[in-house]
Write a structure and sequence with these properties.
Blueprint lengths: L1 H24 L13 H8 L3 H17 L4 H9 L1 H11 L8 H11 L1 H19 L2
Helix pairs in contact: 1-2, 1-3, 1-4, 3-4, 3-7, 4-7
């Protein structure tokens, strides 16, 4: 059971990271920012695509259908690339984190999007399986 949960959390992390990073990384017109660690993630932080938040809801719905783990933990894992990156970037000598509490507050707000998807999918799934 624990092994399945760890796999679900890892898949949530990888899927969320892909949803957030790929639209910015593949956009040739996006402004590039320097960073001590993984500049592509800083590019995402500075220029998050609005539709990526919608994709997080859709991804959350998929997690809600197939994953059995906690919705809150799955939501946190889906966007945890941001706080992990900021910790490593600071430790690597990055200097763009002078408003760290506000930065992390935004990351916390991003967790709401996959949680909405997970909760709505689980509600819908429960509604259709019980027949009420």
């Amino acid at each position: 059971m624990i092994r399945n949960a760890l796999i679900e959390y890892l898949l949530a992390f990888l899927g969320g990271a892909a949803i957030l990073v790929l639209p910015v990384a593949l956009d040739p017109d996006h402004v590039r920012y320097p960073a001590a660690f993984l500049p592509v993630v800083r590019n995402v932080v500075e220029g998050l695509q609005l539709y990526s938040l919608g994709l997080l809801v859709v991804f959350g719905a998929l997690l809600g259908i197939y994953a059995k783990s906690s919705a809150v933990l799955l939501g946190i894992c889906s966007v945890s690339i941001f706080p992990l990156w900021s910790i490593i970037d600071i430790a690597s000598g990055g200097d763009g984190h002078n408003l760290l509490p506000f930065e992390w507050a935004f990351y916390a707000v991003y967790t709401v999007f996959p949680i909405i998807g997970i909760a709505s999918a689980r509600f819908t799934k429960r509604r259709f399986t019980t027949g009420t």
